[in-house]
Design goal:
Structural class: alpha/beta
Shape: elongated
Helix content: 25-40%
Bound molecules: L-homoserine
Strand content: 15-25%
CATH class of the largest domain: Alpha Beta
Number of domains: 3
Distance between the termini: 49 Å
CATH superfamily of the largest domain: Dihydrodipicolinate Reductase, domain 2
Number of helices: 15
CATH architecture of the largest domain: 2-Layer Sandwich
Number of strands: 16
CATH topology of the largest domain: Dihydrodipicolinate Reductase, domain 2
Largest sheet: 10 strands, mixed
Radius of gyration: 24 Å
């Protein structure tokens, strides 16, 4: 295998790729290599070629011509081919072929470029250590926020900063669902079905709507930002499936939008990582984010706040990110997977998010004298102060929808209050509580 660092630029032969996976992303990579060969060669200082490809079905109709490439049924065999320099793993899945092919590539001394957040969230630490021990790289720009170059921003552009906080909307499908619910006034189940028919949902939709996919991404960003081992299991995860059209409407009425928001920060108590639905001001950059778009907000001590917005999925954006990593490898640039040698990443102490925040509380109250006073008394007892409150008109005259925005309170105080509220005997159903992030 050619080693660009030893050969020097003028003697470099082509960088030869083996592409495992020919879905949307794999096809996008092939398309860029076929249509931009000259531009890639100029920028990389050498041609970038495809030796072989692999996918589950050889006969499936694909919108690119693959006839010039060797075919491998087994991605592990593809990874081991002596005429492949870099494995481009775009199959997906935290285990199975994606893992075995990546392991085989590393064992054979090859670099790996992957779009697979699940794989790295679960096995990234070990795989990065193994690759780096062999002087090879695993790169994953495409795994987080699609076309947004957030990995490069953290590992290169902001390398001199203490990162204070990483935040963002990192799953386009859930943002599509939430904005479509608001714009069309449709219930969750109906928009979920629409998203399925449009092909927006992952094969296991829970990865999207349960916040898991976004949680994978947040855990990878946190590792780079804070120099810690990837700790996906420590992410406090909550999906969007309990968000109702009522919440979306009432939040809008109070000047907020609901987003599946990820926040990671290092505190004196340890590493906080949470991915959960939050209310954000409707006129903030995050509040304005529509459809399948992603937004990542990075805060560094020297640089201040950086906001990056762009397509979080799709053929072109994801292939663009894959190719950025491939071009780096062609140039001989082998950055550590997590911005510093994987062996130097430290085990984080996971910390629950305890910082006070305002909360949105929606409940249905018995419409009778003293009902509201009982709720206010419980909140007051727990030290929770009401900032704003609205009671809405209702057809069923016995039950009144009530919305409360609290002043900042701790999640612990709120949890106590929520536990005590049913005993007041004035609530119908469960109250809904959603954190407000004034970003
Ligand atoms: N399902 C993901 C999303 C695709 O909706 O953002 C990219 O990970």
């Amino acid at each position: 295998m050619s080693d660009p660092q030893k050969l020097g630029p003028q003697k470099l032969g082509p960088l030869r790729l083996g592409i495992a996976g020919l879905g949307t992303v794999g096809v996008g990579v092939v398309r860029i290599i076929q249509t931009q060969a000259d531009l890639l060669a100029r920028r990389a200082g050498r041609p970038i070629t495809i030796t072989a490809v692999s996918a589950r079905s050889k006969t499936r109709n694909r919108p690119v011509d693959l006839s010039a490439y060797a075919w491998e049924d087994d991605p592990v065999a593809l990874a081991r081919r002596p005429d492949v320099d870099v494995l481009v793993e775009v199959m997906g899945g935290s285990d199975g072929p994606a893992l075995t092919a990546t392991e085989a590539a590393i064992a054979a001394g090859k670099d790996v470029v992957t779009a697979n957040k699940a794989l790295l969230a679960h096995h990234g630490q070990r795989l990065a250590e193994e690759a780096e021990a062999k002087g090879r790289a695993i790169r994953f720009e495409a795994a987080v926020a699609g076309g947004i170059p957030v990995i490069k921003a953290l590992t290169e552009g902001l390398a001199a900063n203490q990162i204070r906080r990483v935040m963002g909307v990192m799953n386009g499908t859930t943002n599509y669902i939430l904005t479509r619910m608001e714009n069309a006034g449709l219930p969750y189940d109906q928009v979920f079905e629409e998203a399925r028919q449009l092909g927006y949902l992952e094969a296991d939709p829970q990865l999207d709507v349960g916040g898991i996919d976004a949680g994978h991404k947040l855990s990878l960003l946190a590792a780079i930002a804070f120099g810690t081992k990837v700790a996906f299991d420590a992410v406090e995860l909550e999906g969007i499936d309990r968000i109702s059209i009522d919440d979306i409407r009432l939040a809008a009425d109070m000047g907020f939008r609901i987003k599946l928001l990820g926040v990671a920060q290092m505190t004196g108590r340890g590493l906080e990582q949470r991915m959960s639905p939050c209310l954000v001001p409707a006129d903030s950059p995050l509040g304005q984010l529509q459809g399948g778009t992603n937004m990542v907000v990075l805060e560094g001590d020297a640089v201040g706040q950086i906001v990056m917005r762009g397509a979080g999925a799709g053929e072109g954006p994801t292939a663009s990110a894959v190719m950025a990593d491939v071009i780096d490898l062609a140039r001989g640039t082998r950055l550590s997977t997590f911005g510093q040698p994987a062996a130097t990443l430290v085990e984080p102490t996971p910390a629950r998010a305890t910082a006070p925040a305002p909360f949105y509380l929606r409940m249905a109250l018995a419409d009778k004298p003293g009902a509201l006073a009982k709720v206010a008394a419980v909140l007051g007892d727990e030290g929770i102060s009401i900032d704003r409150m609205r009671q809405y008109a209702h057809e069923d005259r016995s039950v009144a929808p009530v919305l409360i925005v609290t002043h900042k309170c701790t999640p612990e105080a709120l949890a106590h209050a929520l536990k005590r509220l049913p005993a007041t005997g004035v609530l119908t159903g469960e109250p809904v509580a959603i954190r407000i992030e004034n970003v």
